[in-house]
Amino acid sequence: PIKYIFEKAALTGRIARWQMLLSEYDIEYRTQKAIKGSILADHLAHQPVEDYQPIKFDFPDEEIMYLKMKDCDEPVFGEGPDPESQWGLIFDGAVNLYGSGIGAIIVTPKGAHIPFTARLQFECTNNVAEYEACIMGIEEAIDLRIKNINIYGDSALVINQIKGEWETRHAGLIPYRDYARRLLTFFNKVELHHIPRDENQMADALATLSSMYRVNRRNETPTISIRCLERPAYVFAAEEVVDNKPWFYDIKMFLQKQEYPPGTSNKDRKTLRRLASSFFLNDEVLYKRNFDMVLLRCVDKHEADLLMHEVHEGSFGTHPNGHTMAKKMLRAGYYWLTMESDCYKHARKCHKCQIYADKMHLPPTSLNVLSSPWPFSMWGIDMIGRIEPKASNGHRFILVAIDYFTKWVEAASYANVTKQVVVRFIKNHIICRYGVPNKIITDNGTNLNNKMMKDLCDEFKIEHHNSS
């Protein structure tokens, strides 16, 4: 039986679970023709002693297909979350020169994020990658036994095709659409929403990472951990006192005793020597050489706080901004590494500056510029034709006008579109119906750019522009 389990090509059902459980013990099967003394072992097996206990041939927990580390916010498989809880799913796909990747994020009711990502090892289009990402996220949600879910994606085609609002014309996308709809029947309540790409950055980052990351067939990829660094790597941005020593302690010790900090590498020593070349030590006071060879006294954090308080809101303080504060202290002959950033932070924390400062009337989000903020104020006019065969009334051209704001279309057919026809069309179909427009945009055609058109625009004070 063990040989059958290890050598079977297609594994299904219980055989697959047995092989997965046995693979933990690194068992290797070797065939032997005869074993000396095996008759004795068979005889003892058929005549057990009194304290014999039968062997249990059933594997424990054989219904478990695989094991996985559980996240603190992820529900246990088999238990399932609250059926009334509302979950979220965000998906995205990416196709570039390096390959194709998909990413999905399940958002728990508490706001935690459970990421999923995969690299597609086959050629596909952008729409197929979006469908693959959506289906992967839905399958993971089904495994978590989620019942109520909101699905978000930046692909309007995938969202609207699954909802049934758009027709699926591409033959390769129809199976994806049908399979996605079939998966949605596992949920009690599903809502699909289209979101802009700016609001889908996390799923887009997962998809881009998986498309550019080289993985092998065994999926043996290292774990990517993201750490939070609260301070920069070196002394250039030292903002606080460490071990009750000022930020310039190492530089001072090097200039005074030619000593390096313990445990420093050759690269760190080279950097320290380069930094120390711009400092000057006079007895116990350290000075910084400015670009104009002016010596600036180096101060620690406590002295820097007193200086910022005095310059900003002291006896002669005028509550200047951070840049002005830093310039004043430089002219006064003081220096520390994070002077400008500390001054900006101090000015922003000032209570009086926040109360009496000028109000910022900027909108909280970027404005969407509208090219035509009024309905029927700007029209675009163009001609379609020649149409063959011509209509029964002899018309071969169509003159079309579209309003830029409402997208309303006015059209009429003519046998020939002359300059007289264009002027009559503007008067009858635009001015008489919707009022005098503010602007008309046409191409460089002679029937749309002529003296009659110019006289019409001058008469009604209409701006005439060419699109190219």
UniProtKB/TrEMBL annotation:
<dbReference type="InterPro" id="IPR036397">
    <property type="entry name" value="RNaseH_sf"/>
</dbReference>
<dbReference type="InterPro" id="IPR012337">
    <property type="entry name" value="RNaseH-like_sf"/>
</dbReference>
<dbReference type="Pfam" id="PF00665">
    <property type="entry name" value="rve"/>
</dbReference>
<feature type="domain" description="RNase H type-1">
    <location>
        <begin position="83"/>
        <end position="212"/>
    </location>
</feature>
<dbReference type="Pfam" id="PF13456">
    <property type="entry name" value="RVT_3"/>
</dbReference>
<dbReference type="InterPro" id="IPR001584">
    <property type="entry name" value="Integrase_cat-core"/>
</dbReference>
<dbReference type="GO" id="GO:0015074">
    <property type="term" value="P:DNA integration"/>
</dbReference>
<feature type="domain" description="Integrase catalytic">
    <location>
        <begin position="369"/>
        <end position="468"/>
    </location>
</feature>
<dbReference type="GO" id="GO:0003676">
    <property type="term" value="F:nucleic acid binding"/>
</dbReference>
<dbReference type="InterPro" id="IPR041588">
    <property type="entry name" value="Integrase_H2C2"/>
</dbReference>
<dbReference type="Pfam" id="PF17921">
    <property type="entry name" value="Integrase_H2C2"/>
</dbReference>
<protein>
    <submittedName>
        <fullName>Uncharacterized protein</fullName>
    </submittedName>
</protein>
<dbReference type="InterPro" id="IPR002156">
    <property type="entry name" value="RNaseH_domain"/>
</dbReference>
<dbReference type="GO" id="GO:0004523">
    <property type="term" value="F:RNA-DNA hybrid ribonuclease activity"/>
</dbReference>
